[in-house]
Design goal:
Neuraminidase; mainly beta; globular; 4 domains; disordered N terminus; 7-stranded antiparallel β-sheet; 672 residues
């Protein structure tokens, strides 16, 4: 049993100086003692929580709150609150712990936050200055909530930088273009646990463009595909960033024994534990600047294993040949591709979806603009960016454009790609803005956050293991010049799947997100959903779930009121497609939709007696998310055995079918 012990706030600075960069705070500024039973010679091993200084630390701290994170109920043993001179104890690190959060407080206001990079102290051994080589340390990037920080150590500016993040706390930047737009062969390593950046002594054998980069075992990465000047790259490249680092050329990916060569393909990794890797489209002819010949645009798509060249699995072709596109794979294994350029060189406006076992199918097309960026949120809300500054949306319930004066940020006109990144708390990062496209808040503009100091666009966006995000490269929006500080790290609020359990009946009006912007609204004590059709005996097209929260063991208490001609539903979901919906009508009907789009009605017990649905209902999820029970007034209304596409967490919320709407109130949510 791992135990957290003797937490101390004695060295928390009463005033932290504002500073950007990745330098460590003074050693011991945030320190916990951690004992690992059976470590070393059977004696406890001390583990320190070391803060990597971010930015926005210009507020006084009156205390420090330390929480152990994971999918388990909060308890007095997993959270402590310390004053400036206090010491305390967290008795144990529960099984399933995913991280340790530290929050600097000024009164009751959280002024700085951080989260450890998991709970494995071996990751940072020998990497942090100021600590012994064998010291066990959990580094924490510590910054103001929703702050965007320049890393202290920056690489040379460049365009089309291709990067990937590693679970071991590393980022690799490969190739791209110099400020003079010459192709580069440089390989840059960023150690996120220390904040240090270096160009490896070894570089690529030739300049490269249009590739993708993937983490594999150890502290290694693989570079796949891309092009050299005038020719497709004929190899994969293994990069090991441990120690001095090494760069080694190896054979390319293979398909049935033949080399798989492609450049400027869309690439995406599923956030599920399975971590499926998709490559889609691309081209197979390039010019002397390694740019795609539009006529060679491809429709081919594959699942790949970058470490196993022969493990490539062919998938059905796209409906349109495209290169330079955007791709996302959701937690339930559904793949999405949008935008890019077609075989005539024009920018594409379409969105395609691939369900497991199916074929690619077009689901939406913008009317007047090409797609410049793509993000897919759980529950099936897809957002698309364009070059004119608008954000568009699509879901099974409809489509439209988000109002740039309220629900979306006021973005500038750009000539480049405009990538987007869905954050763990279901907000979206675009350019240097945060917004919540599906928010149920009464004032949708309250979810918009502009990230100072300088606006930029077009950088690659990487989600990191500790819930932060990295902006790599891009252009300054005002001057259109390359960003001279290519690396910016975003520290969002702690509102991810294991970081909060919102008060659903309290004053938080951002606790829900919907799949149909404008159809879900937080009301006093609850939530209202406005229906948009749908048969009573079908899955609800309009849905909303608790923002950010995910669990495999939860309890939701609620009451509801459906308006005439409408049916209320309680929903459990995973990813963009998979869900279980319980229709709360004269009969309890439980329906399931799998990631492949197939639907079925589950046998979950007899219909309730008359009046059984009056009053408070209780939905419980247990057995690792595979058992669902609905109770009312001490009577079990439904008990179901469930299966899910992956072991990732599940969302919970509500839906509505019919002509009017439904209201949900008396809401209380807890982990079990």
């Amino acid at each position: 049993m791992r135990r957290l012990m003797t937490a101390s706030a004695r060295n928390v600075p009463t005033r932290a100086r504002a500073r950007t960069g990745g330098a460590l705070l003074d050693a011991g500024a945030l320190v916990l003692g951690l004992a690992l039973a059976g470590s070393g010679c059977g004696r406890p091993e001390s583990i320190e929580l070391a803060a990597i200084r971010g930015c926005g630390l210009d507020q006084e701290f009156s205390g420090l709150r330390v929480r152990v994170l994971g999918d388990f109920p909060a308890s007095g043993g997993s959270e402590i609150l310390l004053g400036p001179t206090q010491r305390g104890t967290i008795p144990e690190l529960p099984d399933g712990a995913t991280g340790v959060a530290a929050e600097g407080l000024f009164g009751t206001t959280t002024t700085a936050i951080g989260r450890s990079w998991g709970v494995d102290p071996e990751l940072a051994r020998g990497r942090l200055r100021g600590f012994d080589e064998d010291a066990a340390v959990l580094p924490v990037f510590f910054a103001a909530p929703d702050s965007l920080c320049e890393l202290e150590f920056q690489p040379e500016p460049g365009a089309e930088l291709i990067a990937a993040a590693h679970p071991a706390g590393d980022v690799l930047l490969v190739g791209g273009l110099s400020p003079g737009l010459a192709l580069r062969e440089q390989v840059v390593h960023v150690d996120l646990l220390t904040g240090r950046t270096r160009a490896l002594g070894a570089s690529l054998a030739q300049p490269r463009r249009g590739h993708s980069v993937y983490p594999i075992d150890g502290r290694r990465f693989v570079i796949v595909g891309g092009a050299w000047p005038g020719a497709l790259a004929q190899d994969r490249v293994l990069v090991d960033v441990d120690g001095a680092g090494s760069v080694t050329s190896v054979g390319p990916l293979e398909l049935e024994g033949d080399a798989l060569l492609v450049s400027d393909h869309a690439a995406a990794r599923s956030p599920s534990p399975a971590g499926q890797l998709l490559i889609a489209g691309g081209c197979d002819i390039v010019d002397p600047q390694a740019r795609c010949d539009p006529a060679s645009a491809l429709t081919a798509t594959y699942w790949i294993d970058p470490a196993q060249p022969g493990a490539t699995v062919p998938l059905p072709p796209l409906t349109q040949a495209r290169y330079g596109a955007h791709a996302v794979v959701s937690t339930d294994g559904v793949a999405w591709v949008a935008g890019g350029f077609g075989s005539d060189g024009t920018r594409l406006r379409s969105l395609e979806r691939l369900r497991p076992g199916g074929t690619w199918a077009p689901v939406h097309e913008l009317a007047d603009a090409g797609v410049h960026g793509l993000a897919v949120l759980d529950g099936g809300l897809v957002v698309l960016s364009d070059d004119a500054g608008l954000i568009h949306w699509w879901s099974e319930a409809g489509s439209g454009s988000l109002d740039p004066t309220s629900r979306a940020p006021p973005l500038a006109i750009v000539a480049t790609e405009r990538p987007m990144l869905a954050l763990p708390g279901e907000r979206v990062l675009v350019d240097t803005w945060l917004f919540t496209p599906g928010t149920a808040a009464v004032d949708p503009a309250s979810g918009r956050v502009e990230l100072p100091p300088l606006a930029r666009h077009g950088g690659q966006l990487l989600g990191l293991h500790d819930g932060t995000a990295l902006i790599v490269g891009g252009w300054m929006t005002d001057s259109q010049a390359l960003a001279d500080a290519p690396l910016l790290r975003l520290r969002p609020r702690l509102d991810g799947p294991d970081e909060w359990t919102p008060e659903l009946a309290g004053p938080q009006n951002d606790a829900f997100v919907g799949n149909t912007p404008g159809r879900a609204t937080v009301i006093v004590g609850g939530l209202r959903l406005d229906a948009l059709g749908g048969e009573p005996d079908a899955l609800p097209p309009v849905r909303a779930h608790v923002r950010g929260f995910r669990s495999r063991a939860m309890r939701l208490e609620f009451s509801y009121e459906a308006e005439p001609g409408s049916t209320a539903h309680v929903i459990v979901g995973q990813g963009s497609e998979s869900l279980v919906a319980i229709a709360l009508g004269s009969e309890i009907v439980v329906r399931r939709r799998g990631p492949d789009g197939s639907t079925e009605t589950l046998d979950c017990g007899p219909a309730p007696a008359d009046g059984a649905l009056a009053g408070e209902l209780v939905l419980e999820l247990g057995a690792g998310g595979n058992q669902l029970r609905l109770d009312a007034a001490g009577t079990t209304l439904a008990t179901c055995e469930l299966e899910w596409p992956s072991s990732a967490g599940l969302s919970v919320g509500f839906g509505v079918t019919g002509a009017e709407g439904a209201r949900f109130f008396g809401l209380r949510l807890a982990r079990r």
